User: Fold this.
Amino acid sequence: MARVALLSNPRSTGNRSLLPEVRRFCDLHKDIFHYEVEDVGQIGAAMRTIAMVRPKVLVINGGDGTVQAALTEMFNGGHFGETPPPVAVLPNGKTNLIAHDLGAEGDPIEALGRFLAIARGDLAPHIVTRELIALSGGTSSGKPVVGMFLGGAALADTMLYCRHKIYPLGLPNGVAHLLAFLAGLLAIIIGRRATFLPRPASLKVSMQRHGHLQGRFAVLMVTTLEQLLLKSQVVTADGKAGVLQLLIVERRPLVILRAFADAIRGRLGRYKVQGIHLERSDEIRIEGDDSNVILDGELFEARSDRPIVLTPTAPVSFLRLAA
Assistant:
């Protein structure tokens, strides 16, 4: 039985330079079963093969989109029966929100070595559970897609702007994200006059037992992660536990700057601020006209006649490195 199964996506941005090192590491450690896919469409076949070697830990080597596709296949495919292995994520990608939430930062090869060392011993002290977001609607397959971080409204448009306009410039990730934030803020300040900047559409967001909000928002964020962008933690002012964390920031410059400043200081959600809405819900519905949302890197479209519905999954086991 392999202690670690490693699923790699060579087309992930980080793997363009990293993959040769990963292959050399795996060649030196025979208790790693390494499976490479040419595109995410092959992840189903990969999971069927990986299930046959019964690994103690499944490590995913790719960006957030690769992680999302792998988790969706695990959720829908049932390849591991009732006892799927805990999932670990290498810090390899543009944003790496999931890897950071699980304590994996820095050098990916070093993180892989730590995952292997943990797999050779007792996993229990390193196991954490997370519910996932199950997204229904907005997909052609009709099957739920699962992930851990969803962005919508101007946030999604800014993420797409960063992906298509700023990342190709080859700037460091931190610089690219800052430029994308400034572009999104500028779009809000000057309105629709600058066609090169992202433009948010109107959305209606309905929450179970919490009514609904409607308008053109700067940020729509739904997550089950503990840590978000800038390593901030979102907590509701009343401190209530919940499964799906929802953050909505209204499309006003001063409100956005306050939310950004609170996020940098790790205080987002600790105090009630007009224009910043924090809720927890077991079901969230998103409706709009040609409104984009992004779940762990994959784009979906919310429409008035085909709303996106978000619900939590059962808890899934992950392997967390010490922070």
